[in-house]
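Practice problem 4.
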């Protein structure tokens, strides 16, 4: 309860009174009122037949329940959706947990071949699924994020008792800032401790520092390295006739090189560096994304040359980024960012745009990424990057590193680790 109150407090600070009420209403509907579905209650046979038909398909080797309520239809299309999509393409039958706050899925819905959006909060529907899975002979897994604070160790042990394997995606430094709470939720801590003391569970890490932590505590048994990546094919085409807003077009009419960042604006964002870039009066800085916490409003107000344009859906965001001259990640260096594998650097690569970041561990691995170790060097790297924009060899390097980090390879790394135990 303390964790939920802390989360609600942060939502209030972030969205204000009326925004808080709207979010609270949606949360209550999604997590309490929608638990009882009269459609399933009145016609259980219909849904049992549908689930049984899905399980009867021969086009998969294993079943994965994705049980972290990240949601699927959200503006920030991130690792959960990409990994789910690519596991499904690699003969995994995926039941992906939705949140009805964003997905509008009260029961289940087929998203693509072998991928189903599923409302695990629907009590009767989930009971039917579990009953049918009990009789299914295919190997079964529950997969979730290390940052999930909904499921408890008891929930995990329930799945293990029914013959499931456990795939734990250790994707970030465990911190209250990422959880959106004042203190790290107990469920996050307890699941982490459980995994580190049970080497039979499968751990997926996205960064070297996370891998080192796991090896130190439990060795390399059942460990997969799967950094973030990019859907390369998605960035091979663009909406050539896309109608940009006048606000966006006006920025380009100023005639300055346009530097772009998209993603969360949070406490790990280097606002001082951003202001130093803006104060040169040489660039227009465009920010797309969400205000993850109150840090943006605390650090920026009406600075010239900085333009916050809000979030854009994943399906069209690439059109905006493609128009810009350079793409960047100006993060402060701390425990969070040292253990972060930023999805956006791989998308930046696929966009064939110069990339400048601060000195994050995972960014050092890629020759196409220009690293600024301090503010002055970051500014120098921006100018270097702008000069590389038309360099054919540099663009070829961006393309190669993007292809080498396609999501299909990241999903394959997970499958390789679990498949060894399925024979």
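Answer key:
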């Amino acid at each position: 309860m303390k964790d939920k109150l802390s989360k609600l407090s942060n939502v209030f600070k972030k969205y204000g009174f009326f925004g808080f009420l709207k979010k609270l209403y949606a949360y209550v509907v999604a997590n309490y009122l929608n638990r009882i579905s009269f459609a399933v209650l009145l016609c259980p046979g219909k849904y049992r037949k549908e689930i049984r038909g899905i399980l009867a398909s021969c086009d998969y080797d294993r079943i994965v329940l994705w049980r972290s309520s990240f949601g699927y239809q959200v503006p920030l299309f991130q690792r959960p959706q990409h990994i789910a999509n690519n596991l499904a393409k690699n003969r995994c039958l995926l039941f992906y947990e939705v949140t009805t706050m964003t997905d509008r899925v009260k029961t289940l819905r087929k998203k693509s071949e072998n991928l189903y959006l599923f409302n695990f909060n629907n009590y009767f529907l989930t009971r039917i699924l579990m009953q049918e899975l009990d009789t299914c002979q295919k190997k079964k897994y529950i997969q979730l994020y290390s940052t999930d604070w909904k499921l408890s160790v008891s929930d995990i042990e329930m799945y293990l008792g029914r013959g499931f394997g456990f795939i734990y995606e250790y994707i970030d430094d465990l911190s209250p800032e990422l959880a959106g709470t004042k203190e790290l939720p107990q469920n996050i801590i307890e699941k982490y401790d459980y995994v580190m003391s049970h080497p039979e569970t499968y751990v997926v890490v996205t960064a070297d520092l996370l891998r080192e932590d796991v090896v130190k505590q439990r060795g390399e048994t059942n460990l997969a390295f799967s950094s973030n990546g990019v859907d390369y094919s998605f960035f091979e085409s663009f909406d050539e006739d896309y109608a940009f807003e006048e606000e966006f077009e006006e920025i380009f009419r100023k005639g300055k090189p346009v530097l772009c960042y998209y993603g969360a604006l949070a406490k790990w964002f280097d606002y001082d560096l951003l202001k130093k870039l803006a104060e040169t009066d040489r660039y227009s800085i465009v920010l797309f994304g969400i205000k993850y916490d109150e840090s943006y409003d605390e650090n920026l107000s009406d600075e010239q040359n900085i333009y916050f344009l809000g979030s854009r859906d994943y399906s069209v965001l690439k059109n905006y980024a493609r128009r810009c001259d350079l793409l960047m990640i100006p993060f402060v260096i701390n425990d969070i960012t040292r253990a972060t594998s930023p999805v956006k650097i791989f998308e930046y690569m696929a966009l064939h745009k110069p990339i400048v970041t601060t000195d994050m561990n995972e960014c050092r691995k890629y020759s196409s990424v220009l690293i600024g170790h301090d503010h002055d060097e970051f500014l120098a790297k921006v100018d270097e990057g702008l000069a590389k924009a038309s360099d054919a060899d540099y663009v070829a390097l961006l393309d190669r590193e993007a292809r080498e980090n396609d999501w299909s390879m990241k999903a394959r790394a997970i499958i390789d680790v679990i498949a060894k135990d399925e024979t």
